[in-house]
């Protein structure tokens, strides 16, 4: 029998330990118990989420690979496909921000590589506490440096992402990274097949870094977490670059590789077990054959190490030596560490002696799957009620304050540290969805990441709908047809019924919207236990979405273009529930977010068609900060002003700073007004003014309420983050 202290060290409950003993029919040794603990951890086993994740729509005409592999795959045309995946590295980044973020990048890149795809783009979604906190600035700076330091070195451009600063993320930042890859031909699978075929470890040597990292990621953060610092891996981006090139060369030159698997969380244990499970076979590993960079490593340390820049290959027996020269040319380890066996067993040997043996099913199919106990938060009604709207004396001052908030200002302090032009395929960054070209193709790829924890904190079902809808709307606004979703679901402790309720309702909302918009979810990640001694993060789903732009001529951008262009608003601006305006001016997120999903479906369909028919010169959706912020961004990006007049029975606060969805700003030539108004007659449309030079002017019910110089808007927008970080 094990003591509670022993089990706590590996993040295993007494009940799960007893269950594991009953499955095995005996007492597991230290190695076996460690392997069960990591595979049954939340990070690897998804034991609190896998039942709920079945709600997502996962199939579609362009889906070649849905959830269950290292990454999702969608068809772009007859010869080219795109791999996509999002992963989180939240806990490691809270302890060691540079290495936590850097190894998060490395891991997601290898997930894409494992599908046989060349990684071509990275995006990051980041959440921190407020920047007036010195530790927040330390975490923020370290994470950005880690992402740039790793991504820049491996030659994969970081082309976009999104960013937020709010108190619930003070001690537990969220670091979600998305990677895209391109491949020709049939995707690879992370599977092992064929009795006697070899298991080959390629890449870096194995050390003691990252041991029990998967179980560490399945714990709440406390003051004692600093003691878990050794659980954070250390990355070597130059080794990763060599690994990328070697694996792609091997796949191109040889048909001997049956399966490819990233060696990430739980190291050799998870990679070998997952490959065996997918192939319906067993595996035998000889730990002394594993290249080690430290002396005296035990079988448990070798099997659980999460040392970076390693992958596991399943290769046809007798063809191994044909691959060895490729990896040795790139200066990488090429070690045959095991083989496929017919019985569904994971057998670990040391110098030929069996030191551990566990049925594959115990580590995969028999991982506990819990029914979540849910409870509506007791304070939800209070949170959803806005007691009073802050009294505004100067709307221009409020606009400038929001523009100068790190949540609305430019994130160039971040993306200027990234090499977004490596490979010279990046078309556009920093203005909503990002765009990359594909050499030799007419079409372009649009990609966006979006999330808003405030919405889900106040109404998780509606919030889930809004985040999927906004991601799709961002793509539609650049002329891209949305194709697929990958997600990162970041929540607190799922054993807390209120957190569980937030999770379930959020997934329900996301699923509903994905179905209505016909966008499949092809993969993603769940990160629970994002809690600390003082904070639980907002329920924060992040949506990564890709779309396809037919050609450069049908590309649409958000900035205002020419003096005299007519400005229209599609949809109905309003509703202060869940807005940044309320949180910024009152210090608390309050109210009830609002979206009209039926209107969303209709508006997106019409807008994409209008953009492709070149009726529209610019398009920008309204989200964080509301209409006033969206108008200011379009003015700043285009270096043009506006003169608009709005008539409404709603208050100026609701119209200017509300975040009701869907609402989109479009512009067109003056001689196309009649065509545009006829085109969008099925949805609310109002002409509000024109693009002018220099000044930013808004009248409300015939009273001038904002009149500012564009240069002042720019200065405030440009300094929101830099004033804290430089």
Query: Which quaternary structure do these chains form?
Result: single chain
Q: Please count the beta strands (DSSP E, at least 2 residues each).
A: 26
Question: Helicity range of the residues?
Answer: 25-40%
Number of helices: 27
CATH superfamily of the largest domain: PurM-like, N-terminal domain
CA radius of gyration is 26 Å
Model description:
By secondary structure, this protein is an alpha+beta fold. The protein folds into 3 domains: 1-40 and 188-367, PurM-like C-terminal domain (Phosphoribosyl-aminoimidazole Synthetase, Chain A, domain 2, Alpha-Beta Complex), CATH 3.90.650.10; 69-187 and 410-553, 60s Ribosomal Protein L30, Chain: A (2-Layer Sandwich); 372-405 and 556-726, PurM-like C-terminal domain (Phosphoribosyl-aminoimidazole Synthetase, Chain A, domain 2, Alpha-Beta Complex), CATH 3.90.650.10. Helices cover 35% and strands 24% of the residues. It is built from 27 helices and 26 strands. The strands form 4 sheets. The chain has a 7-stranded mixed beta sheet with strand order 8-10-7-11-9-12-13. Strands 21-23-20-24-22-25-26 form a 7-stranded mixed beta sheet. A hairpin with a 2-residue loop joins strand 12 (345-350) and strand 13 (353-359). The longest helix is centred in the N-terminal third of the chain and has 21 residues, at 134-154. The radius of gyration is 26 Å and the shape is globular. It starts with a helix and ends with a helix. The relative contact order is 0.13.
């Amino acid at each position: 029998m094990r003591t509670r202290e022993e089990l706590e060290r590996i993040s295993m409950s007494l009940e799960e330990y007893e269950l594991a003993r009953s499955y095995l029919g005996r007492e597991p040794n230290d190695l076996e118990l460690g392997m069960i603990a990591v595979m049954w951890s939340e990070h690897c086993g998804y034991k609190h989420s896998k039942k709920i994740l079945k709600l997502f729509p996962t199939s579609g005409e362009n889906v070649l690979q849905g959830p269950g592999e290292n990454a999702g795959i969608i068809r772009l045309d007859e010869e080219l496909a795109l791999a996509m995946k999002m992963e989180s590295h939240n806990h490691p980044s809270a302890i060691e921000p540079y290495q936590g973020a850097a190894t998060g990048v490395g891991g997601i890149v290898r997930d894409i590589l494992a599908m046989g795809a060349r990684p071509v783009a990275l995006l990051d979604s980041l959440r921190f506490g407020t920047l007036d906190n010195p530790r927040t600035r330390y975490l923020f700076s370290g994470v950005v440096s880690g992402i740039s330091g790793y991504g820049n070195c491996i030659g994969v451009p970081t082309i976009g992402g999104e960013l937020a600063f709010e108190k619930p993320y003070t001690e537990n930042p969220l670091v979600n990274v998305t990677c895209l890859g391109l491949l020709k031909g049939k995707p690879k699978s992370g599977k092992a097949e064929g009795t006697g075929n070899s298991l080959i470890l390629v890449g870096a040597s194995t050390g003691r870094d990252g041991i029990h990292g998967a179980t560490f990621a399945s714990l709440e953060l406390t003051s004692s977490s600093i003691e878990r610092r050794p659980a954070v891996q250390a990355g070597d981006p130059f080794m990763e670059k060599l690994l990328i090139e070697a694996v792609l060369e091997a796949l191109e030159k040889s048909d001997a590789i049956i399966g490819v698997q990233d060696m990430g969380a739980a190291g050799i244990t998870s990679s070998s077990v997952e490959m065996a499970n997918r192939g319906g076979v067993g595996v035998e590993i000889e730990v002394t054959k594993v290249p080690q960079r430290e002396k005296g490593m035990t079988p448990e340390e070798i099997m659980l190490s999460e040392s970076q820049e390693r992958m596991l290959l399943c290769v046809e027996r007798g063809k191994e030596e044909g691959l060895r020269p490729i990896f040795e040319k790139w200066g990488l380890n090429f070690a045959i560490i095991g083989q496929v066996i017919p019985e569904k067993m994971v057998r670990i040997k040391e110098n030929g002696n069996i030191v551990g043996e566990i049925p594959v099913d115990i580590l995969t199919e028999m991982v506990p799957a819990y029914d979540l106990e849910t409870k509506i938060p007791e304070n939800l009604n209070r949170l959803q009620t806005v007691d009073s709207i802050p009294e505004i004396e100067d709307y221009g001052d409020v606009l400038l304050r929001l523009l100068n908030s790190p949540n609305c200002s430019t994130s160039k302090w971040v993306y200027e540290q990234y090499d977004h032009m490596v490979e010279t395929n990046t078309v556009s960054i920093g203005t909503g969805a990002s765009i990359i070209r594909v050499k030799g193709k007419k079409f372009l790829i649009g990609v966006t990441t979006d999330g808003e924890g405030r919405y889900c904190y106040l109404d998780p079902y509606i919030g889930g709908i809004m985040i999927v809808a906004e991601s799709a709307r961002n793509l539609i606004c650049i002329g891209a047809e949305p194709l697929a979703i990958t997600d990162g679901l970041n929540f607190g402790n799922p054993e807390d019924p209120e957190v569980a309720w937030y999770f379930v309702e959020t997934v329900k909302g996301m699923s509903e919207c994905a179905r209505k918009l016909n966008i499949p979810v092809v993969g993603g990640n769940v990160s629970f236990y994002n809690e600390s001694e003082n904070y639980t993060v907002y329920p924060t789903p992040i949506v990564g979405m890709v779309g396809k732009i037919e050609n450069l001529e049908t590309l649409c951008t958000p900035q205002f273009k020419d003096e005299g262009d007519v400005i229209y608003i599609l949809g109905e601006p309003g509703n202060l529930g869940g807005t940044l305006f309320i949180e910024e001016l009152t210090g608390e997120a309050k109210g009830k977010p609002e979206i009209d999903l039926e209107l969303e479906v209709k508006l997106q369909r019409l807008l994409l068609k209008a953009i492709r028919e070149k009726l529209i010169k610019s398009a920008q959706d309204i989200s964080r900060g509301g209409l006033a912020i969206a108008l200011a961004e379009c003015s700043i990006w285009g270096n043009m002003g506006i003169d608009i007049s709005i008539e409404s029975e709603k208050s100026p606060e609701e119209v200017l700073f509300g975040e009701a969805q869907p609402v989109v700003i479009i512009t067109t030539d003056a001689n196309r007004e009649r065509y545009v108004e006829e085109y969008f007659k099925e949805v609310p449309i109002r002409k509000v003014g024109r693009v002018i030079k220099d000044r930013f002017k808004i009248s409300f019910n015939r009273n001038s309420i904002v009149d500012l110089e564009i240069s002042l808007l720019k200065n405030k927008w440009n300094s929101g983050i830099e004033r804290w970080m430089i």
